[in-house]
Fold:
Amino acid sequence: MSAAVSGLVSANLESFGELCAVLEQLHKKKRHRPEQNKILANFFNNVRLKMTNSEGGKDATFFPILRLLLPQCERERNPYNLKEKKLGSLLVKVLSLNPKSIDAQKLINFSSVHSSTQESDFAWVAYFVLKNRFVQKSSILSITDINEMLDNIAKADVENKGILLDEVFSYAIRKLTAQEFKWFLRIILKNLKLEMSENRILGTFHPHATELYQTCSSLYEVCEKLKTSNILSGTESSDEAVVKLFLAVKPMLSERLDVTNIHQLPTSITYHIEDKFDGERFQMHMENGKFEYFSRNGRKYTKKYGSTYDSGSLTPDLKDCFSTDVHNFIIDGEMMGWHKRDQCFGCKGMSYDIKTITENSSYRPCYCVFDIIYYNGKSLICDPEKGGLPLKERLNILDTLFTDVPGVIQHSKRSIVKDSTDVLNALNAAIDNQDEGIVVKDVNSYYKPNKRNEGWYKIKPEYTDDTMVDLDFVVIGADEAENKRQGRAKSFHVACIDVKPGGARWVCVGRVAGGLARAERERVCAALQPHWRASRRAPPPPCLHFNKETPDFWVLPEHSIVFQVRATELIRSSSFGAPYTLRFPRVMCVRTDKLVSDVMTLQEFNQLVSTRSPVIKLSRKRVNETQLNQMQPMTLRRRVANLPQVSERFRTKTTGDVQVVSKALLDRKLCVISDEEDCKKVDLVKLIESHGGKHVENPGPDTWCCVVGRMTPLAKKRIEIQELDIVTASWLRSLPPSDTLCSLTPLNMLSMKRETRWQLSLDYDSFGDSFKDEIDENVLNKCLQNMQQSIYPTTKEKLKLDEQLFGDNNPFSFLRSCTIHIAKSPLHRLLAKMYGASVSDDFASLTHFVIPRDTSSEDVQNFKNDLNVKIVSDEWLEACFQEKRLVNDLDYIM
Ligand SMILES: Nc1ncnc2c1ncn2[C@@H]1O[C@H](COP(=O)(O)OP(=O)(O)OP(=O)(O)O)[C@@H](O)[C@H]1O
Structure:
């Protein structure tokens, strides 16, 4: 297809040289996102203009260009299977360089780590080494030519024709300029080094392109759908879901949830629990007996698993399992390894890769299906307007689609959640079984491609403090960072101590990269810097046992420090000194208080792995219900409505010696949301009981009211949503004993539900002044305070006013709708406030979390893990300030 497609845009329309010039500009402006966007948008507009003005150009497609701009999204061509090492040797061969020459050595032994400047990738090194050998000084090849050359490279790999490769490369060297060749190499390596995300490039191309790409993972389809003629005639829209058989849909993702925050899920919603399978996400497409398999990032694995019932390692076993009235479908699930002899699942850390296992492996693929995307010609995803069905209805279809064949294809089992105890029990069962965790899903959620916050939650033990066993290791090595901004080390090799009669030996157990905050990493690197020894110059001494994975630098423990490390599992490995290594490790803290001789001993480490199972889970401790009550404000995400009660034995209890002295709260249920600085929760509960009331752990429909002391994020959230009656803890503390039930007045309340508000409005005015009761000085003061407050309009009212006065954009308060946390710049904070933003440190209520543009990707990832809020670069704010309007933040999402 690709050659034909390449021809659709006229060869003369765009030369590769012009594209390279744009790429150069984008590369130069890589720290200036808005400028990059402008450059790219201008380029697209120019091409669009040329297309419409050219004969038949209205039907021309951007695909040949877009696939060069987004080489990492290339799915129409086979993989090139050319990495730096192979490319280096190929160039040396094609250019007939003396392999021992300095230039040839630079190409053959290229390593991004050891190259002289931070910016240099292989293409850049090749450019400098080879630029004088290029004869072509100006551009002569078109985009079509380049695509054809790439087709040939992909073909050469499939057909294993080295000659074809040599031909393409010698042609490229003769016909391309040195600069074009540099970009040609970057396209082959699928990394243009522009620091522009897929979404940003697609978003600049067309506002609907990103969404379309999520549903089909095909640039070709995106370009077809957004052809110039459609754009001009206004017929294009993203409303039509482009789910097509045999085109991969980007899978829906799960949001991380710490089980101790489970109460924060609204109880008005029904959830079910499923096992969290520890395999590889796969989609299966089928039409009339023809199958395709796609991995999570849209790569085809059909050859492996089989395109028909006659081929592959999975499809032949599916022959009789599908219902007879199904013609086509797309299903979503996890490809697991099934141990043929032991008849059980393996997990990802084990010594097989489900994508590449062969017949000889002890494992075979078993597809565990948890969703359906497409059924008998109809897409079932996205919102109802687009034909989407809620999960429970999709699952009704899925249940009838096939019958389980154990070890081949299985439905993911699910159970409806009745209360938080169910979730806890399921997680603890997963911990006991050494499983990865559980997944909790809103049964009414719609399938949203590539979306993470749409009703699916993954709950793993490691998200909860205290369930994991932390291990103390000493740093004995490091690998060098390509980018030295955060210090010299990219990752650290950590070891346990093996105490021997002749002296200690340090046995490396693995490598850890994540977990350290930027400043801390810098501090660690600075402290170790004087003691690092490069392994290339001086091999590590025998007391440091590394095995195959020798670090770039080693350090003696006496000069080193201790890391407290948390990992999800230990997996068998022959790469490091110990027979098991750490899976997904991260540094929890630097133990400056610990001597290196106090780290874990090899003996202790071996005890952990004494079962000899290939994977040892490090989540040892179960979660108990008391932990469920410890809210974690940082991950507070969703609206809280009627919440489930925790089981009786874990409720906050008084000692039982409370004397009931009043009937003010007789038989009423109250829920204490937060305590007061000087009055613990248990004391507030005692007060409730002394008035004859009952304390409940979570508010439900029969809860009379809630009590708030300290303004915790949870308390704020509950007050904000105005769905509960909430009184202040000071009201409870000053409640006088009484023989009759007390009543609530607006002045004591932080929040009211609608019915209460309506009822009280009969007796009180909007400032809390009673129509019938006399008031004292104290009450009068409070009413006056309310009057003052109510003079100021709410944000909502201000927004309305903005709209009336300024239409779409109020140039003086364009940030009014935003609640922003600004990590660094005080100036930005000031300006943001000046332009109407609420600047806040309350992570639960943020619309944007603004961080400096040069924040490391690791830190960005950490923020993403911890916060459910848009994380944007500070360039977004600058763009807003500059343009005096609320600039679309999409381009600035980190
Ligand atoms: N029952 C299930 N429902 C949905 N996803 C599941 C289920 N079981 C396993 N998964 C897998 O869990 C993955 C998410 O969990 P995990 O955090 O381990 O993966 P990740 O790749 O590290 O992160 P993420 O996929 O969330 O970016 C999903 O992509 C999916 O492949």
Q: What stands out?
A: Residues 253-254, 274, 276-277, 281, 334, 370, 412, 439, 458 surround adenosine-5'-triphosphate (CB under 6 Å). The longest helix spans residues 33-53.
